[in-house]
């Protein structure tokens, strides 16, 4: 079988095309303290400056051996772009959203007239992709990632978001329409900068929280708009939602994404059976296995996850910053030794 470049291999695997082996990649947060020490780029500064974002992101490739480079490392830049107050992270912890800006339809109207190309952190993330693209060209795929429209709307609206869904609060529809428009345009800007794969991280759009009806109404149509926009640019899309999404995979599959990333709580075999169009990727436990386990335990679990139906075996949620590099390398070694 033909041997492919890392970029070709990832594209073909996500598109269900013939491929020589499994890509060695991570679709969720990749940075660790050991990578920071190895490359000299540290949080929180490496969440802020394009050169440092790129330097730490590529450490996943140069230090760990991943066959892709993923940016960024957190899911707060989008809310920050719209004016939400952000609690700064530390060397070990990610920043978080602590203030909200969209309580009414009138608030949403004030946010609609947004543009890229300024100095906001989302613009600096786009610039980091340009840096990586200039350095790696078409050899190594660059994975762009962003928060999904549902979770971004919740960030902007705050604790009232879920109650608003149930009470038909008039802010709900215009807000999620606006955040979806933002996500589509942000993804397009990342692709123009050099990203060749897109990841939607939508943690609060959880089947566990929403159930069938609300998920079908407030998640599928908006994820599909992003997936369709990426298809128009020939860029595969991966959707990650936290929690036990086993019973909701059949709905996630209707969004048109090429892959569904599942976390450690998911029954991979049932997920693979439920997904008729998307491939299942995941679902190694980032804490008990990847952080606290051993390389041999990781390789053994990789084999089990692959046998259960995951087409790309990788970490099931964001990498814990304290994860040892040798544990991450065990995942890479398994993938590189795999046979499709």
UniProtKB/TrEMBL annotation:
Transmembrane segments: none annotated. CDD domains: Mta_CmuA_like (cd03307). GO terms for molecular function: dimethylamine methyltransferase activity; metal ion binding; uroporphyrinogen decarboxylase activity. SUPFAM superfamilies: UROD/MetE-like. Residues 5-336 form the Uroporphyrinogen decarboxylase (URO-D) domain. Its EC number is 4.1.1.37. InterPro entries: Methanogen_methyltrans, Methylcob_mtaseMtbA, Mtase_MtaA_CmuA, UROD/MetE-like_sf, Uroporphyrinogen_deCOase. The gene is hemE_5. Its cofactor is Zn(2+). This is Uroporphyrinogen decarboxylase. One of its GO terms (biological process) is porphyrin-containing compound biosynthetic process. It comes from the Archaea.
């Amino acid at each position: 079988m033909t041997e492919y470049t890392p970029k070709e291999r990832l594209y073909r695997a996500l598109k269900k095309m013939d491929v020589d082996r499994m890509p060695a990649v991570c679709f969720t947060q990749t940075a660790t303290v050991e990578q920071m020490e190895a490359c000299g780029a540290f949080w929180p500064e490496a969440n802020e400056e394009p050169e440092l974002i790129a330097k730490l992101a590529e450490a996943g490739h140069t230090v760990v051996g991943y066959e892709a480079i993923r940016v960024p490392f957190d899911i707060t830049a989008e809310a920050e772009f719209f004016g939400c107050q952000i609690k700064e992270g530390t060397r070990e912890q990610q920043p978080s959203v602590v203030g909200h800006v969209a309580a009414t339809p009138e608030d949403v109207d004030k946010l609609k007239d947004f543009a890229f190309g300024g100095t906001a952190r989302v613009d600096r993330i786009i610039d980091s992709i340009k840096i990586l693209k200039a350095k790696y060209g078409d050899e190594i795929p660059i994975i762009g990632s962003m928060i999904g429209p549902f979770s971004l709307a919740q960030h902007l609206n705050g604790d009232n978001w879920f109650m608003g869904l149930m009470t038909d609060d008039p802010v709900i529809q215009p807000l999620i329409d606006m955040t979806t428009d933002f996500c589509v345009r942000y993804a397009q800007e990342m692709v123009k900068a050099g990203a060749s794969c897109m990841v939607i991280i939508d943690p609060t759009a959880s089947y566990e929280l929403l159930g069938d009806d609300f998920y079908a109404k407030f998640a599928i149509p908006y994820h599909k708009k992003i997936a369709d926009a990426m298809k128009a640019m020939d860029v595969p899309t991966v959707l990650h939602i936290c929690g036990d999404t086993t019973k909701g995979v059949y709905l996630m599959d209707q969004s048109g994404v090429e892959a569904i990333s599942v976390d450690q709580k998911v029954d991979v075999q049932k997920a693979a059976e439920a997904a008729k169009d998307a491939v299942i990727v995941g679902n190694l436990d980032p804490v008990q296995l990847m952080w606290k386990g051993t390389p041999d335990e990781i390789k053994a679990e990789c084999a089990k996850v692959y046998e259960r139906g995951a087409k790309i075996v990788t970490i099931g949620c964001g990498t814990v910053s304290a994860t040892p590099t040798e544990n991450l390398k065990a995942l890479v070694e398994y993938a590189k030794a795999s046979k499709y």
